[in-house]
Amino acid sequence: MKTSLASLFLISTLCLSHCQGESKSLSQNLVTYTIQPMLSGTQQVLQVEVKVAVPKGSQQFDFTYLNNSWGQNDLYRCLDTILSAHRKLKAVKMPGENKISFQGKLPAELKFSYHIKQDFEGEIKHENSYRPIIQAGFFHVFGHSLFMVPTSFQAEGHPFEMIVNWKGFPSNYAIHNSFGSQERQQRFTIKNWGEGTVFVGGDFRLHPFKVQGKNVVLAMRGQWPLFSDEQLKNNLEKTVQSQRAFWNDYSQAYFTVVMMPIEGECTKVGNRYSGMISVGGTALVNSFSTFCTNNQCTDLSQFDYLYNHELMHNWLGHTIHTVGEEEYYWLREGFTDYFCYQNLLKNGFFSPEKYLAEVNSRVFKPHYTNRVKERPNSEITYNNFWKDRDFEKLPYRRGMIYAYYLDGKIKQASKGQSSLRNLMLDMLEMAQKGKVIDTNDFLALSKKYCGSDQSESFKTYILEGKLLQPEDFVLPQGLSIAWSEDKTFLKLSKEPAADEATWQRLTK
Ligand SMILES: [Zn+2]
Fold first, then answer.
1. Which CA distances in Å does 371 have to 97, 330, 383, 390?
2. How far is ligand 1, taken at its centre, from the CA of residue 431, in Å?
3. Most CB atoms closer than 10 Å: which of 55, 271, 403, 495?
4. Which fold has domain 320-506?
5. What confidence tens digit (pLDDT) does each residue in 280-298 have?
6. Is this prediction's pTM over 0.90?
7. CB 39, CB 45: distance < 8 Å
8. Ligand 1 center–CA 57 separation, angstroms
9. What is the full DSSP assignment across 383-418?
């Protein structure tokens, strides 16, 4: 899953190396938080103290805290006990506007505190896993549900700085998040708060490793009956190595993956276990976060797709930004899935047989038989995406199938010299220079690599949502796409001529 918060605060990262003149305004855009564990009655909560300089003469200062996000509603139920340190100055909660407003005579330095609490009881399940989870022994909270952030800092479109002090936690209590591991005092710059962050603590087990000298940490908790921490770490390491090679980008100094167990029934029937497997994740700044049922049904193979998909977003989504959110999911989710499956095949997570079985059963068949398969791109909206499972999957599958089409065109036009990967590397370079990608950028790159204008195919197969037909695809020798016997869906198949070179050409 990919979250849909980013459109709120789409901030250009253009000025990173040209910002000397702005260092003054940057240091003014500094907010300090001190977080402590606390009991409120019998409930474990996090107390957050905030300190921020307020512009002289201000009569109002607002903080952003999202009430509805990532499919969760009423998150203000988790925000409690806002106490101002200044007499007569009160905070007004405005959930409808996603803000908390301080109004009146403001001091030069505004100080206040608030509590963040878990607002549900019982087991942690898929449905409530995106809410703050704060219990005795551990916590797991996404940044937008932990921090009230000055609204003006985000609106200005400049980076801002956060200092976070972790106070009063036991010495054996892990403190771990999107910005560092086991640091009780943190200071970091935020380029785009809307991209999402995760903060965890407590009984998480931390497994660090290095890729070309750069730190990566797997943080996990709970017992996992079918695999060891070490096995999962090894798979993650292989995934990170292969994707950094794919993007030819080893620049990230720190990256982390958080794995949180959730409940799901799995029972033994005869000699076999059967029940619920739920795995999901979301890509974040310097990190991604995953929720998985830790039962006898969830084995190591469940993480192959999840890790490869979420990590791909580190580039496609978190480095390559798009001007819109859901309307660009064909690229951000669909192309992510295309390269995710390619990497799974190329790096030995999937055999060719498994690759074919997975893309047919998870992409081609469900897409061509989807109730909403031919609905236009414009109907892929926040509401449809989060409320309707068929709509949620639509951009993933439509985008991935279009990627097969486009990759084939590029390989054909270049006689195998270039592929869709080259187009993506160009897009990455543009994004690293600060360009926020739009449809025109994509079409210009497509034209460059296909040698022909793709506006028409893009309009037909992405915007209008028409279905690609078997004859539209150009595939490497040894592979074919044809209608299923009952003519209800397209199927990717291997022919007798398929050999090692077939798979190499496909994943080039
Ligand atoms: Zn995704």
1. 35, 18, 17, 7
2. 19
3. 403
4. Neutral Protease; domain 2 (1.10.390)
5. 999 999 999 999 999 999 9
6. no
7. yes
8. 44
9. HHHHH-HHHHHHHHHHHHHHHHHHHHHHHHHTTTS-
